[in-house]
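Hey forum,

I'm writing up a methods section and want to include a predicted complex as supplementary material. The small molecule is coenzyme A. I've pasted the protein sequence and the SMILES. Can someone with a working setup run it? I'll credit the forum in the acknowledgements.
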Amino acid sequence: MNHSYEEKVLELIRRLKRGEQAGPASLPAHPRVTLEPVTWADADEPQSIHTLAEWRKKANPYFPAQFPVSEEGTHRWLVHSTLEVPDRLLLWAVSAEGQRTGHLGLFRFDFTDRSVELDNVVRGVEGVLPGLMQAAVESLLVWTFETLAIDAVYLRVLSDNERALRLYQRCGFQETMRMPLVREQEGDAVRWVEAQADHRRPVTRYFVTMRLLATERRQRKAQLAGPHHVLRATMPQTRSDFTHQP
Ligand SMILES: CC(C)(COP(=O)(O)OP(=O)(O)OC[C@H]1O[C@@H](n2cnc3c(N)ncnc32)[C@H](O)[C@@H]1OP(=O)(O)O)[C@@H](O)C(=O)NCCC(=O)NCCS
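Reply by user p_vandermeer:
Happy to help. Structure tokens for the complex are below, copy them as they are.
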């Protein structure tokens, strides 16, 4: 394993969560959307917790675990399941007008094969700026592939989440696998969990895994490149800190 690569990426994520500048590894500029890390300051900011809780409530049906969302629980989740997790980074998608419109992130890096999961993509504000979430995903992909020198980005999405599937397909992701799910209820919480091998009843919902390889993205970018393409993102100045070591 390339420890120095892993340490560099984790140190960068730590710095972003502390609200520090990332220098040449900064998130890329994009004309439509700015990605701003969710930081430790957000954990102390009631408005941020409120926003995250409201957005999670609204997105509940689209996640495999559905539960009553509270601000206390959201604060715990932000601190213990996001900020304290070294290889998890959540980012606000901020419109050109400065409005927090959604969030998205990266989670579960595999530093050996240089892959990572696209995590927690949620549009918080509906009915404004169509295409903003696509711009946010595209911008994060630029950073992930070009600055972090990741080779493959994966994601998991429920099979009936058509809007999300459309978004990911527009960004170039392709399905690689689907896992049958069964519904489990515990009090007022519902969990969709993988069906066991001896499961016999019909299955209606799947967890779809999608993947985008750096090589595929480069080909796609070459096809899409054109003077008027709205989603063309600004490339960072350098990726030298994160390029593959022999
Ligand atoms: C998944 C999710 C983030 C997608 O957000 P979104 O608003 O559809 O994404 P965008 O901002 O890129 O908007 C895309 C829509 O605007 C349309 N659009 C894009 N540019 C446009 C433009 N210039 N003019 C008009 N429409 C445009 C797209 O065609 C698309 O519409 P469609 O899905 O009906 O085809 C959102 O549905 C969501 O938050 N869902 C709940 C949480 C969730 O499911 N997360 C994913 C978990 S895996």
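Some notes you might quote in the supplement: The longest strand covers residues 174-186. Residues 172 and 181 are 25 Å apart (CA to CA).
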